[in-house]
Write a sequence for this structure.
């Protein structure tokens, strides 16, 4: 019996110092710093018509909210995902026209006509090109 009490007291003495100590949480390692080149690099665009349509829809949303700069950015991305997406060029031209970026709008409408000379909006694009040129926009 005395042997059991001795072992019990011994076990409590060994364990008790660790009971009073607070455990410190492990400090996480600092996140690795991204390479400067990775931050400044543009995303790599490859042909992706689904992503292009998404960008076009988001651009339309921004255009309706009169956030023309955001809309123009989305339309431009849509043209990078799908370079032959004629609607994106037309809408890009409209957004840039609203931003008073005449040369950029002119280039977008010209690209639209280059890709779709007989489309349903071709006459409207020609009219916008004429208007922009009369306002001093120079073709690139």
């Amino acid at each position: 019996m005395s042997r059991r009490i001795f072992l019990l007291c011994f076990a409590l003495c060994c364990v008790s110092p660790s009971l009073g100590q607070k455990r410190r949480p492990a400090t996480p390692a600092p996140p690795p710093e991204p390479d400067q080149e990775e931050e400044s690099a543009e995303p790599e665009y490859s042909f992706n018509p689904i992503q292009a349509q998404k960008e076009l829809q988001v651009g339309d949303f921004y255009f309706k909210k009169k956030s023309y700069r955001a809309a123009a950015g989305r339309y431009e991305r849509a043209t990078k995902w799908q370079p032959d997406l004629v609607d994106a060029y037309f809408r890009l031209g409209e957004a840039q026209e609203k931003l008073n970026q005449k040369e950029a709008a002119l280039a977008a409408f010209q690209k639209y006509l280059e890709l779709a000379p007989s489309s349903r909006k071709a006459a409207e694009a020609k009219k916008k090109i004429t208007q922009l040129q009369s306002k001093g926009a120079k073709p690139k």
Remarks:
- Helices lie at 2-20, 36-40, 49-64, 68-81, 86-98, 102-115, 122-134.
- Residues 87 and 123 are 14 Å apart (CA to CA).
